[in-house]
Specification:
The complex is a heterodimer of chains A (about 375) and B (about 260). Chain A contains ten helices and twelve strands. With about 375 residues, chain A is an alpha+beta fold. By secondary structure, chain B is α/β, with parallel strands linked by helices. Chain B contains ten helices and twelve strands. Classes of the chains: A alpha+beta (about 375), B alpha/beta (about 260). Chains A and B meet through strand 1, strand 2, strand 3 and strand 4 of A and helix 4 of B.
C-alpha cells in the first residue's frame, strides 16, 4: 500500500457527470446506457458510494452487458503505476485467473486519462462479475487460501515482461508498517488538542516501541532470506476483494489491484490471514469493527494449510520469517484502523496486547 | 411491467401538503379491499415513506441481480431508498444515476400488483418525465386550501397536462380541523379549492381530508391510519377515494374497448 496522508471519504459518491461524459465517449458506450447506483452484496442492496471509500465507481448496464467503471484511487495515480496494474490485470485474465476482463477504449487503450480540476484522473472499464461476498464460511476461507496460492504461482510465472517494462514499486511489509506509523504520528500531532493525555502517552509509546521493533524485525527477516523471493503481489488480498460464486464457494473474481507491488508473497499470505482470521468488519465495509481480541486459530490453521497445499515446496521458506512479517502487518493494519478512526485512542493498550502476541501465535500455527 | 395495472401518481407542486400520507393510506385502502398493491417512494432525495410505514427500516433490502426487491409490510410491496440508506441525503442521485436508480427500484421490478401507487417528489423535475414516459398512469393531485398552495397546484396542472398525463382529480388536504373529542369541525384555511382549481381547470374534487390529531398520531408512529381505524370518517373517505380512482381507470378501459 502506497501511503499518503489523505482522509478517506465515506460518501465519495459515484463518478461525476463531466468525467462520465468524456469516458463513455472514449469507450463508445451509448448515451442510453444505465448507470446503476445500487449494488448487490450477498443479496442485500448497498448504495455503491458506501462501498467506495477511496475511488469513485459506477456500474454501467448496456444491453445485456454489465461493466464497472472505476477511477484509479488517489494514492496510486501515477501513469507508470496505472500502466503496471492494468497490464498486470490484463495478463492475469489472459492467463486464466479469475480477474475481471479489462475493456479497452475505442483506440485500444486500457484506460482513459481525464484532466479534471487541476489533476489527472485515470479511469478504466472492466467487466462486472456477479457473485457473493465473504460471509465467514469455512468453505470460502479454504477457497480464498487456495486461490491465493494459485494467484501467486500464476503471477510469478507470467509477469516478467510487465515488471521489466513498468518497473513497479518495490516495498516490503516493514517499510509499509514504518510509513503507516509515521502517518499515525502525523495524525497524532494534528489531533493533539483533542486526544486525552493518557491516550497520547499510549499512542507515543505505540509509535516509538513499534517503529524500533519493526526495524529490528526487518533485519531478522532479511537475514532469513525475505528478499530472496520477490514477485508482484496483490497487496490487498482481503475478503472484500474476492467475489465468490453465487451458488458455491468458488472464487469467480479477484479485484482491486491498486496496491500491487513487488514484495515477498508472504506479505499477501499474512495480510489475508489476518484479514480473514483476526480482524472483524463493519457490515459490508472494509472498516474494522471493534478492537480485535485474538486470532481465530482454527481458521488460521485452515487458511495456512490450504495455501501451502496449493503451492510448491519452495514457498515453504516463507515460514522462516512469517512471525516477523505477521508482527509488521499487524502493526500496519492496526495503525490504519487508528488513523481511520475505526479504533478509539482509548483502545491502544488493548491493541498493543494483540500486536505483542501475534508473532508467537502465527509462528506456532505455521510450524505445526 | 404489466400494462393492465392501475398506476396512480400522487403529486403536488408544493411540499408539505400531505402527499405521502395520502399515498400510504390510499395504498393500504386498496390492500384492505383485497387487491395486490405496490407503493413506490419516487422521492429519491427526500424519501418520506419510511417514516410513515415503520417496520421495514431495519430489514436489509434484498436484491435479485441488480434489481431492488420491494419490502413487504402488511401485504403492500414498498420500495424506497430511505429503507436501505439512512444517509441517503448524502447521496445525490442526479442525471444518469437517477435513471439508473429508477430502473433498479421501479422499472425492472416484478411488482405483480393490480394497483401501483407512486409518491412523486414535489416540483417539476426529470424524474417525473422519466416515470410518466416509462410507466403510464394517471395523476391524483394533492393540495391544501391556501393561496400559496393554489399557485403551485395550477403550475402542477399545467405541467401534468403538458406531459399529456390524465388527472384523476384533486384531494384537498387539511380542509378543516376535526376535533377528536367533541367532533366539531372548523375551517382552518380560507381558500376555496372548488372555485380556484376545480371549476376553472375542470378537475374533480375527489376528497377533503381534515387535520386530525389522531391521523397525525398514527403517521408519527409509522402506522398507516386506515389499517388501524376501521369504522371512521377518514377511513371511509379513503375507501371512496380508492373506489373513485379505480372506477376512473375502469371507465377509461371500457371507453377504449368501445372505440
Amino acid at each position: 500500500m502506497l501511503i499518503k496522508k489523505k482522509s478517506i471519504d465515506y460518501n465519495f459518491g459515484m463518478v461525476g457527470n463531466k468525467v462520465l461524459e468524456s469516458v463513455l465517449k472514449q469507450y463508445g458506450i451509448q448515451n442510453d446506457c444505465l448507470l446503476l447506483p445500487f449494488i448487490n452484496v450477498n443479496g442485500k442492496c448497498i448504495p455503491l458510494n458506501k462501498r467506495s471509500e477511496t475511488s469513485r465507481k459506477t456500474v454501467i448496464s448496456q444491453g445485456n452487458e454489465l461493466y464497472i467503471l472505476k477511477e484509479i484511487p488517489w494514492y496510486c495515480s501515477n501513469k507508470n503505476f496505472v500502466n503496471y496494474v492494468l497490464n498486470l490485470q490484463k495478463q492475469l485474465f489472459v492467463n486464466g485467473l479469475p480477474v475481471p476482463e479489462i475493456i479497452e477504449t475505442i483506440q485500444g487503450k486500457l484506460y482513459c486519462e481525464i484532466d479534471y480540476e487541476d489533476e489527472v484522473k485515470y479511469v478504466f472499464l472492466q467487466r462486472y462479475i456477479e457473485g457473493n461476498s465473504w460471509n465467514g464460511s469455512e468453505d470460502k476461507l479454504c477457497e480464498a487460501a487456495k486461490m491465493l496460492g494459485k494467484f501467486h504461482q500464476g503471477i510469478e510465472k507470467s509477469c516478467g515482461q510487465i515488471i521489466a517494462k513498468y518497473n513497479p514499486p518495490k516495498y516490503d511489509v516493514f517499510d509499509i508498517a514504518l510509513k503507516m506509523l509515521n502517518t499515525l504520528n502525523e495524525v497524532a500531532i494534528d489531533k493533539q488538542s483533542s486526544i486525552r493525555e493518557e491516550n497520547m502517552k499510549s499512542l507515543k509509546k505505540f509509535i516509538l516501541v513499534y517503529s524500533s521493533k519493526v526495524n529490528e524485525y526487518k533485519k531478522i527477516a532479511y537475514d532469513k532470506g525475505y528478499s530472496n523471493f520477490l514477485i508482484p503481489i496483490h497487496g490487498d488480498y482481503n475478503p472484500w476483494n474476492l467475489i465468490f460464486s453465487k451458488n458455491g464457494s468458488d472464487i469467480v473474481g479477484i479485484i482491486d489491484f491498486d496496491n500491487s507491488i513487488i514484495d515477498n508473497p508472504v506479505h499477501d499470505l499474512v495480510e489475508s490471514l489476518l484479514d480473514f482470521c483476526l480482524f472483524t468488519y463493519k457490515p459490508q465495509t472494509t472498516r474494522f469493527q471493534g478492537a480485535p481480541t485474538s486470532l481465530n486459530k482454527k481458521s488460521a490453521k485452515i487458511f495456512l494449510e490450504n495455501y501451502y497445499n496449493s503451492v510448491p515446496l519452495s514457498y515453504y521458506d516463507m515460514n522462516k520469517y512469517i512471525g516477523e512479517v505477521s508482527f509488521a502487518v499487524t502493526v500496519e493494519l492496526i495503525s490504519l484502523g487508528i488513523i481511520r478512526g475505526d479504533y478509539d485512542f482509548s483502545e491502544i493498550n488493548q491493541l498493543m496486547f494483540v500486536i505483542d502476541n501475534i508473532e508467537d501465535q502465527i509462528s506456532a500455527i505455521s510450524t505445526s | 411491467m404489466d400494462d393492465s395495472k392501475v398506476v396512480i401518481y400522487v403529486y403536488s407542486g408544493k411540499g408539505g401538503v400531505g402527499k405521502s400520507t395520502v399515498s400510504v393510506n390510499l395504498a393500504y385502502s386498496y390492500a384492505l379491499k383485497g387487491l395486490k398493491v405496490g407503493l413506490i417512494d419516487a422521492d429519491l432525495s427526500g424519501p418520506s415513506i419510511p417514516s410513515l410505514v415503520k417496520g421495514l427500516e431495519n430489514t436489509p433490502y434484498n436484491m435479485d441481480g441488480l434489481t431492488v426487491s420491494p419490502g413487504i409490510f402488511e401485504d403492500v410491496k414498498i420500495n424506497s431508498v430511505g429503507f436501505f440508506s439512512e444517509e441517503i441525503d448524502e447521496t445525490y442521485l442526479e442525471g444518469p444515476y437517477l435513471h439508473g436508480a429508477l430502473h433498479q427500484l421501479v422499472f425492472s421490478v416484478e411488482w405483480n400488483c393490480q394497483v401501483l401507487i407512486v409518491d412523486l417528489p414535489p416540483g417539476t423535475m426529470e424524474i417525473h418525465n422519466e416515470l410518466f414516459s416509462k410507466l403510464p398512469g394517471k395523476v391524483l393531485l394533492v393540495s391544501t386550501p391556501q393561496e400559496v398552495s393554489f399557485s403551485d397546484t395550477i403550475r402542477s396542472i399545467n405541467f401534468i397536462r403538458k406531459m399529456d398525463v390524465e388527472i384523476l382529480g384533486i384531494v384537498e388536504n387539511m380542509s378543516y380541523y376535526n376535533c377528536d373529542n367533541c367532533g366539531v369541525s372548523e375551517k382552518v384555511f380560507e381558500g376555496d379549492t372548488r372555485k380556484r382549481i376545480c371549476e376553472p381547470y375542470n378537475i374533480e374534487l375527489l376528497a377533503e381530508f381534515p387535520i386530525s390529531r389522531k391521523l397525525n398520531f398514527f403517521s408519527n408512529k409509522g402506522v398507516p391510519y386506515v389499517l388501524q381505524n376501521n369504522n371512521c370518517q377518514i377511513t371511509s373517505k379513503y375507501e371512496k377515494l380508492a373506489d373513485d380512482c379505480f372506477n376512473n381507470f375502469n371507465s377509461t378501459k371500457k371507453r377504449e374497448r368501445m372505440c
